[in-house]
């Protein structure tokens, strides 16, 4: 990793930590049957990834959930999408630390969700930043040793993909009962 990338990564992680401290909230483990809206955050490099994410969204929709999806793509500009619930953003909407710009964060914070699912297994600081700003009763992601942004983190073995992560998340949220 280049020195510039390391410096950007350092400042990005610092901004995420600040956002976590600033956006205090009380998390609650929901009954899956009470969850009405779900936000999926994902990284997209190719059109194939988008179709996989749409397949995962359909899995949640089959359970009666309204699904929203936001993804970051490795292009300067992201193509516009047909559905209002589906938003891609590119490098032009990132700041000097490769985090979403304030306008994008404000747009993201305009809605609240019952559950937010980070659908990525590797480090994605731009998406972690959105997750740290997101308004959701419950946030879930793959396990991260540092910078816990989620209320529930699922350990994902190397070589496993987002489909495995989603299946694990659904297993736990469907089977664990809260005392609320």
Tell me briefly what this model is.
With 180 residues, the chain is of the alpha/beta class.
Overall pLDDT metric? 87
H/E series, N to C?
HEHEEHEHEEH
- The structure class reads alpha/beta
Q: What is the count of β-strands?
A: 6
Class in CATH?
Alpha Beta
Top keywords for this entry?
37% helix, Rossmann fold, 6-stranded parallel sheet, 180 residues
Secondary-structure topology with pairs:
Layout lengths: L2 H20 L14 E8 L2 H15 L4 E8 L12 E4 L12 H8 L2 E7 L6 H9 L1 E8 L9 E3 L7 H14 L5
Parallel strand pairs: 1-2, 1-4, 2-3, 4-5, 5-6
Helix pairs in contact: 1-4
Please explain how this structure is put together.
This protein has helices spanning 3-22, 47-61, 102-109, 125-133, 162-175, and strands spanning 37-44, 66-73, 86-89, 112-118, 135-142, 152-154. The chain has 180 residues and is of the alpha/beta class. Strands 3-2-1-4-5-6 form a six-stranded parallel sheet, sandwiched between helices. Helix 1 (3-22) packs parallel to helix 4. The longest helix is centred in the first third of the chain and has 20 residues, at 3-22. The relative contact order is 0.19.
């Amino acid at each position: 990793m280049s020195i510039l990338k390391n410096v950007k990564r350092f400042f990005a992680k610092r901004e995420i930590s600040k956002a976590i401290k600033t956006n205090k909230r009380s998390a609650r483990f929901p009954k899956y049957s009470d969850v009405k809206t779900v936000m999926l955050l994902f990284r997209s490099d190719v059109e194939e990834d988008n179709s996989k994410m749409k397949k995962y969204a359909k899995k949640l929709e089959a359970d009666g959930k309204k699904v929203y999806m936001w993804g970051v793509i490795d292009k300067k500009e992201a193509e516009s999408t047909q559905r209002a619930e589906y938003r891609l953003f590119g490098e032009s909407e990132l700041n000097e630390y490769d985090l979403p710009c304030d306008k994008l964060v404000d747009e993201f914070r305009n809605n609240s969700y019952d559950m937010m699912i980070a659908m990525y297994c590797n480090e994605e600081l731009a998406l972690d930043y959105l997750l740290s700003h997101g308004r959701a009763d419950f946030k879930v992601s793959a396990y991260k040793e540092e910078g816990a942004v989620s209320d529930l983190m699922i350990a994902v073995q190397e070589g496993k993909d987002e489909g495995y992560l989603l299946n694990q998340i659904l297993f736990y949220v469907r089977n664990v009962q809260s005392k609320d």
